[in-house]
Design a protein that fits this description.
The chain is built from 13 helices and 12 strands. It has about 350 residues and is of the alpha/beta class. The longest helix has about 50 residues.
Length: about 350
């Protein structure tokens, strides 16, 4: 009995010891597991907080009907405004090479890529973008008449996903015609333009309207592409006393061809914007394309940050215009200089050849 009782006591305490060890192991394992999971969870939360605090990089599709200095300056101004606002953006820049079909393809690709915003630099580019999407915000510039171009119903009624800044001051064509009537009285104005550009058609109509009641008349020649510019311009020699090259993308991209004819024939050549003056035009009542691009970029910032929608931002016109004259071009084109131009005009130096 004593031996049995001793055996029972030994067995009982052995069970207690084993049970205590097992509980200790379980607690240790549980604590270890809990600590690991807690660490992982904290790390995940920290990573999430870091990702949330990282500045967003906006994807912007930039579509341009073709490349020439005025449109390029507008795009540079747009990007500068985005950067000045402290936003990070990646740009997918696409030139349509003056082909409307290319412009449509570019816009559709931007939609497929689900970009955050489309910057449409020219009327054809804006029209293509608007045809491609009714959801992605579109900010345009280098557009002469947004209403006539079918982009918006009215200047103060922008679209649900489109608005922007025009490249034509409301008084610039009238002022240019007045200038011609004052200093080249009785002249026939030679107009070369692409009839396929809504921008250009609207401007030509405005020129003809402004000519009514003056001593002036107009003669027109149309082109379909840049290769036709020389022939179209030459066809006006003998009829035109003055050339007026509006902001037609096709003709402006081949402007040096027109400049050569103007200089050879001593025909004063007025143009639609300052960059064309620097490239050999005689004079313009123009605006700064970098400025309108910058303002368009400021609008884009408001849209990207959610401060406003395109529907909240009316279409704007350039804030001001100025008479620009290229004195060297005036001499080359046989223009008699008038002293009042020294005070009234900003004299531009010819652009340096690259």
């Amino acid at each position: 009995m004593k031996k049995l009782l001793l055996l029972f006591v030994i067995t009982f305490f052995s069970v207690l010891v084993l049970a205590a060890c097992g509980t200790s192991d379980e607690n240790e394992g549980t604590n270890g597991s809990s600590d690991d999971e807690g660490t992982e969870e904290t790390t995940d939360e920290t990573n999430g907080e870091e990702e949330a605090s990282t500045d967003e990089v906006y994807q912007i599709g930039a579509t341009q009907i073709l490349e020439h200095p005025s449109l390029d300056a507008a795009f540079e101004g747009f990007k500068e405004a985005i950067a000045d606002a402290g936003l990070e953006a990646e740009y997918d820049f696409q030139s349509a090479q003056n082909d409307q079909n290319n412009a449509s393809t570019i816009a559709n690709n931007f939609v497929a890529d689900d970009v955050d915003l489309i910057f449409a630099n020219s009327t054809p580019s804006a029209q293509s973008a608007l045809n491609a999407t009714s959801d992605i915000p579109i900010l345009f510039t280098s557009v002469t008449d947004a209403v006539e171009g079918g982009l918006v119903e009215a200047m103060d009624q922008p679209g649900e996903n489109i608005t922007g800044v025009l490249d034509m001051h409301p008084d610039s064509i009238a002022k240019t015609v007045e200038f011609i009537d004052t200093y080249f009285e009785g002249s026939t104005i030679g107009l070369v333009y692409n009839a396929g550009e809504a921008n250009s058609v609207a401007q030509i109509e405005a020129v003809n309207a402004a000519v009514e009641g003056t001593s002036l008349s107009t003669a027109e020649a149309t082109v379909g592409n840049t290769s036709e510019v020389q022939q179209a311009t030459t066809s006006l020699v003998g009829e035109a006393d003055v050339f007026y090259i509006i902001t037609d993308n096709t003709v402006v991209s081949a402007l040096e061809t027109v400049v050569a004819i103007a200089e050879e024939q001593d025909i004063p050549m007025l143009v639609g914007e300052p960059d064309s003056v620097a490239r050999g035009g005689f004079a313009t009542f123009g605006i700064d394309y970098h400025t309108i691009g910058y303002r368009t970029g400021e609008m884009a910032v408001e849209v990207l940050t959610g401060e406003k929608t395109t529907a909240d931002i009316p279409v704007e016109v350039p804030p001001s215009m100025q008479l620009f004259i290229n004195e060297e071009a005036a001499e080359e084109q046989g223009v008699e200089w008038h002293e009042d131009w020294d005070e009234d005009a900003e004299l531009l130096e010819p652009a340096e050849e690259e």
